[in-house]
Amino acid sequence: MAGHGGNGTDRQDEATIRRILHVDMDAFYASIEQRDNPALKGRPVAVGRGAGRGVVAAASYEARAFGVRSALPSHMALERCPELVFVPPRFEVYRAVSAQIHAIFRRHTPVIQPLALDEAYLDVTEQWQDYGSATALAESIRGEIRQQTGLTASAGVSYNRFLAKLASGQRKPDGLFVIPPSQGAAFVADLPVEKFHGVGPATTRRMHGLGIHTGADLRTWTVPELKKYFGSSARFYHDIARGMDHRPVEANRPRKSLGTETTFAHDVAEWDRLATTLNEIVSRLAAGCVQRRIAGKTVTLKLRYAGFQTVTRARSAPFPIVEEAVLRQMALELLGSFFPLDRSVRLLGLTISSLVPYAEKTPPVQLRLFEP
Questions:
Q1: Best exposed site among 39, 46, 151, 271 by fewest CB in 10 Å?
Q2: Helices of type H across 37-90
Q3: Quick one: 56 and 173 in the same domain?
Q4: What CA dihedral angle connects 133, 28, 174 and 66, to 10 degrees?
């Protein structure tokens, strides 16, 4: 497998090593808007609602330079970048472009695991030799994407999913990065744990509290030691600290649920603050359902208290939920069922499950209005 930067070649004595690509489009939604409207090129662009309780669904790289990121409330995005241009999302266009990109993937390998409209894992273990190296194959895919869509993609090449995902973010936008087997463990050793895919903000804080700041720090812990603090995730953390990830690329893997969450900088107990944050979470989750053309029947609210105790409550609807207003109503009712709170909250999350493909004729769910 090629070295960092992709200038080497795969060696025949590495025939048993997997070749995994992670391809990630660069600022996908915003880049499409800039492509289709030349007046937006070079300007800070956010896809989403620019008024009320809207959130940023995607931001161009010009906007990211001001600290504008996806899931940021619109009013905060405008505070950070007063020149920010909001454009409404066009999910039908994004889906069409995504279909073009996935058709390109399928011409190179049948083993594809989509993560979203704009990214996927590809296992090219059986195909790389036709191109001379997995790196050359990745470059071919990036070139076809640029030629056929006018958009750029970044790619990571490695011997497992975890490292391929890390690699794709190293030279964004429009970059390629390779982590070969000989350098995987060393690459992870120098990396801050907050950069690890699969280690979220709450886990990062807990690791920092235990003195774990880098992959090298994490590597000093045994599985039993990690299990005391991280439960069933202990083995995963143990392995990735050593550059190991045995998860296969799962083609056509059915999604069982979709969720998102927010961890507060300071614990919160007030209804208004929690309800406002939950509204933002609902908007993100609803957008994710639209992007993936899915709807679900069961809504689950998760609260994690200051002492790390986690509780959940769920409610199911008679039909798949296709309207954001209904999802918001159910979420707020679930939140209301926890009140009055006897302690403050550090994390708030929402998941939708019992998923089905979205259909235009899916009957809308009519529920009573929420009363705080």
A1: 39
A2: 61-64, 74-80
A3: no
A4: -150
144 and 23 housed in the same domain: yes
pLDDT in tens, 230-246: 998 999 999 999 999 99
Say if residue 24 carries a ligand binding annotation: yes
CB-based contact 174:150 (threshold 8 Å):
no
CATH number for the domain harbouring residue 72: 3.40.1170.60
Residue pLDDT, tens place only, 240-296: 999 999 999 988 666 788 999 888 888 899 999 999 999 999 998 988 888 778 899
Close Cβ partners of 235 (under 8 Å, ≥ 6 residues apart): 223
| Model confidence pLDDT, tens digit, residues 103-156 | 999 999 999 998 888 999 999 999 888 889 999 999 999 999 999 999 999 999
pLDDT at 9: 36
* Overall average pLDDT of the 3-15 stretch: 42
Predicted model pTM: 0.68
- Give the number of residues written for the chain: 372
Distance (Å, whole) CA 155 – CA 119: 10
| 372 in a structural domain | no
118 is in an annotated binding site: yes
What is the C-alpha end-to-end distance of the chain, expressed in Å?
59
pLDDT class of 39 with cuts at 50, 70, 90:
very high
Residue 1 lies in a domain: no
Residue 251 resides in a domain = no
Domain that holds residue 82: 29-90
> Catalytic residue positions?
119
Question: b vs e for 64-102, b when ≥16 Cβ sit within 10 Å of the residue's Cβ?
Answer: bebebebbbbbeebbeebeebbbbebebeebeebbeebe
Q: Is the Cα dihedral 343, 347, 348, 353 positive or negative? A: negative
Q: Report d(CA 322, CA 364) in Å as an integer.
A: 6
Structure tokens at 370: 């929420």
Cα(24)–Cα(111) distance, integer angstroms: 16
